[in-house]
Amino acid sequence: FLINTEALSTDKAVIHGQDAKHICKVLRLKPKDTISMTNGHGTDFTGSIDKISPECVEISILSEKKSLTESNLDLTLCTAMLKHNKMDEIIKQITQLGVTRWIPFYCKRSIPLSGPNREKKHIERWQTIARESLKQCRRSCLVEIMPPMDFEQVLSFSKSCSHRFAFWEASDRPFGGPAPGENNKAVVLIGPEGGFEEEEVRSAVESGFISYSLGPRILRAETAAVCACGLIQYLLGD
Ligand code: SAM
């Protein structure tokens, strides 16, 4: 379970809301049962339940340890804004693949977000999905979801990463694994449903990205994102 660090005193934690209901009604845990928790920032806890109701679970912390499920690779995935259900799918999958942060971005052919307060509402929705996915795969760090950027901001953000991969279906360079870099930070660019414009790929390459192909078939953007992150995690992370 994900616990809010503010709700954590030195040796006590409190879980409210849907999670409390789930622990009480579905898992049917009882006082003195053991429970595993994380703060979403890389620390895991084991606790013993003191008091339990569907509204609130009070826990004594028994032990604390650094996460064993996080990768040593700092991996940023940047995906062009896609249709909403695809963005939801991406956040679920990349949480499982150990991605550190996710940057949705606008480019020439991306799909604009719709509705009032759209960025705030979408970010909140993605954060909820990320929290659920974290629990499912037992990660200890939430994917950091950055507010949508424009393409130039993404290129400038990426400058701090040694490994910069731009996936482009028209590239003649098969993805064969990264060269050694100065730091263990990687960034991946995936384009929109309509693909990147050639000029966008050129400016990514000018700012230090290498453009790679993921093979002869055109993958859906969300498939390409998952495939690229899986390959890079395998090659550079764990
Ligand atoms: N029209 C489909 C869709 O609706 O998803 C395909 C979109 S594909 C153009 C979207 C992005 O996935 C591309 O901009 C690229 O980043 C990546 N991609 C897809 N297939 C690829 C391939 N074979 N090699 C490299 N990148 C690929």
Automatic annotation (TrEMBL):
UniProt keyword terms in alphabetical order: Cytoplasm, Methyltransferase, rRNA processing, S-adenosyl-L-methionine, Transferase
Q: What reaction gets catalysed by this protein?
A: uridine(1498) in 16S rRNA + S-adenosyl-L-methionine = N(3)-methyluridine(1498) in 16S rRNA + S-adenosyl-L-homocysteine + H(+)
InterPro entries per the record?
Answer: Alpha/beta_knot_MTases, PUA-like_sf, RsmE, RsmE_MTase_dom, RsmE_PUA-like, tRNA_m1G_MTases_N
Q: Name one GO biological process term.
A: rRNA base methylation
Q: What is its main location?
A: cytoplasm
One Gene Ontology cellular component: cytoplasm
The EC number(s) this enzyme carries: 2.1.1.193
Per UniProt, residues of the Ribosomal RNA small subunit methyltransferase E PUA-like domain are 17-60
Q: A single GO molecular function, which one?
A: rRNA (uridine-N3-)-methyltransferase activity
Domain (Ribosomal RNA small subunit methyltransferase E methyltransferase): residue spans on this chain: 70-233
Subcellular localization, as worded in the UniProt entry: Cytoplasm
Gene3D superfamilies in the cross-refs:
3.40.1280.10
CDD domains annotated for this entry?
A: RsmE-like
Is rRNA processing one of the keywords UniProt gives this record? yes
**PANTHER family from the UniProt entry:** 16S RRNA (URACIL(1498)-N(3))-METHYLTRANSFERASE, RIBOSOMAL RNA SMALL SUBUNIT METHYLTRANSFERASE E
Summarizing the function annotation, the protein's role is: Specifically methylates the N3 position of the uracil ring of uridine 1498 (m3U1498) in 16S rRNA. Acts on the fully assembled 30S ribosomal subunit.
Q: NCBIfam families, per this entry?
A: RsmE family RNA methyltransferase (TIGR00046)
Protein family per UniProt? Belongs to the RNA methyltransferase RsmE family.
From the Swiss-Prot or TrEMBL record, give the protein name: Ribosomal RNA small subunit methyltransferase E
